[in-house]
Amino acid sequence: MQQFNIAVAAMILSSFFLIEKEKDGWAAFFIVLGTLVKLYGVVGLAFFLFSRHKLRLLMWLAIWSVVLFCAPMLISSPAYVVGQYHEWFTCLVEKNAENLGSIQQNISLLGLVRRTTGCMNYSDLWLILPGMALFALPYLRFSQYKNLAFRETILASVLLFVILFSTGSESSGYVIALLGVCIWYTAAPWKRGKWAIALMVFVFLLSGMGSSDIFPKFIREAYIKQYALRALPISILWLWLCYELCTKDYTPIERPMLMNKKIIGYDAKRIVRNGTGLGSYGRTLINDLAPLMPETNLRLYAPDAGRDDLRNQVELRDNVQFCYPDHLRFRLQRDWWRVKGVVKDLKADGVELYHGLSGELPSGLAEAGIPGVVTIHDLIFLRHPEFYPAIDVFFYKRKFYQTLHEATRIIAISECTKRDILYYGDFPEDKIDLVYQSCSTNFNQSISPSLIEEARRKYQLPQRYILM
Asked: Cα 25 to the chain's mean position, in Å?
């Protein structure tokens, strides 16, 4: 089981990575598997608040718990499997007591304090409870959730915590802690200083190589093992890490190539959610504009990542970037962010112009001093309200008139739409621009006359016809 610590580290890392990629089902699999195999995997639950699909994650945790618990019953009786887990629990309790004074085990902060003080009669809870409180404190910084560097540093904290506060920590388990150390050093968006480098060297020498021949045998046996000194450097680093999590801003620092670029923001909800219509318009527009404006950064603001197949239709370029409110956990919060909260992010990101692609702009945009352009496709809900539920007409009308208040200019996609805007809305005509919609290259395909004739006969169409 000693070599299984590498797999434990992989399971914790996988659960974090898969939650980041919104593959909550597989993340739940690794959390449950790690828990049932060596218990350490349960710390994957520390990433629960970072999931965009919490209910889905909970559901999969329940499903995998049942599946993996019952899987051994295919070759053993249920009574035997339940009995084995009962014995495992009993062994863990007994082993915990044995580890308190063991030289080969408890190479942790708990063991370090116990052995250096020589006091053996207190409960480890005096250290574990304050440690848990310090570990949980950064979770109160909800505004930092959106920053990947913050979430990665939480991952580093988890990997260190399971070693520092476990009486079962052993030499081979330090592969887990050292992975956390590397993530801590590299995740920070700021440049590490000389003290951080010095601490990394200290960690490498004592925590990483403390049981090797780099130290004379009498030092290893009489000091490093005797006093669990391998835990000292990573204990210092974890306290430093917790301080940073509670005080530092993990907002990404702009890459030099974007420093002097103009920034235009776009409402990308329909880009990532709608397969046709408004979604197709948005994706085609961004794909057409991006190569024409290489010195302009196009930021696509969406309440969530939406559908992978739609998002991937936006061509990856250096000047195109998706932005999500990752610090907001619930869909209602993210939808409200699109209506109003996004303005705060637009200001923070230095957006110089915001384009609403589907007939609406966020509230407070004009007050924030950000020029707003909105594309209005039609006003059928005003021209023919009988085609819509009354509640929809009510909300669409509110959005329309609020958007007129926020807009600096309006793009109408047809003469008819422009006439309707002037008829129903109080907006200067000289600030309405007529720009016909572009057509995706998907529709720019040559069809042979024989295929056209075949389709005409199949659907019994006349020689001259119009498709609506």
From this structure: 15
